[in-house]
Amino acid sequence: MDSLITAAARALAAGDPLGALNRVALRDDPQALALRGIAMAQLGDFERARPLLRRAARSFGPREPVARARCVVAEAEIALVSRDLRWPTKALELAQATLQAHGDRINAAHARYLSLRRLLLIGRLDEAERALASSDASSLPAALRTIHWLAIAGIAMRRLRATHARHALAQATHDARQAGIPALIAEVEHASRALAVPAARLLSGGMQQPLLLEEVEALSTSGRLIVDACRHAVYATSALVSLGRRPVLFALAHALAEAWPGDVSRHELAVRAFRARQVDDSHRARLRVEIGRLRTELRALADVRATERGFVLKPLHAPGVAVLAQPVDEKHAALLALLADGESWSSSGLALALGSSQRTVQRALDALADAGKVQALGRGRSRRWITPPVPGFTTTLLLPAPLPGD
Questions:
Q1: Are 307 and 336 contained in the same domain?
Q2: pLDDT tens sequence across 345-381
Q3: 41 with 77: CB under 8 angstroms?
Q4: Are 220 and 238 in contact (CB under 8 A)?
């Protein structure tokens, strides 16, 4: 490896893409193409970075598997940053295995953390935790240790473990400063801000109260019966019932919990559960069926009793009932929360992260674009969606994620 390539690689490792380009911008050999691609990616020009990395991978040929694998890892990182979450993970796994087999443990670890962060983004926390448990970051460079602690913090936030998240972010801050990479330091600061702004709203007794992550954690262990509109679940200390795939049942539980300790009329329940403009006999018959199903689902937590005008929620053991709502009252709040991380998302990536169809997400994006809340960049398959960060609330709790014990 010549001196210019070595100097450019060191500049990239230190987070200096312009310094790297000054050394290799006019060269077209495979090593220079790869470094130029990584430099362009660090500058945020992903459209130029991808072709450069692919040209480099083709130029290296089969006799240089490690160099080719590094190009694959770099392209995977671009896919992650640009929120192209349907990028083929199999290629990244093969690249990680190649790097590990040839003794490049640093880049192999980098590939492993890219996979882990993708799992975190799409809410597959159990898989992310298993991957993290098998990772030993103590002997890795400071930059990778920062990513390790950021992953721990991300999981802790989604598990409502505020203390663990705060400790992990403190470690990430220490390692990011040691690495001295401005982009990494900024990423840690961005993640740390999530602990200082409301993560949810508490609806109880007709009042609304914004809650920080610590307060959400305290509420979840308070023994009260919680109807969680962030995750579409009902839980208390003893049990959890997920209603993520039962929207009618969750709408009924939400309406009953909001009115607790009072009851809700049959007419209002039918309107909220079925979105009916005019309630007729068919709606009332269907309501009886759905209330029966809700009783079955919540049998370990609460009873749903009939009253003269409707139904009332009666917790079995909990001293009270509360509704945990999203920080903002917006129809597409979960979509906006993902976009508010400041990155540009593809509609397919949003669909994967939210567990929805791409058609559903596209309709929501079109509605938000008409309202001026999101903006599209590019055309066709390269189209990405962005929105300015919504001030005053954290985004991570809105991501689709199971609760502890789910």
A1: no
A2: 888 888 887 777 888 888 888 888 888 888 887 777 7
A3: yes
A4: no
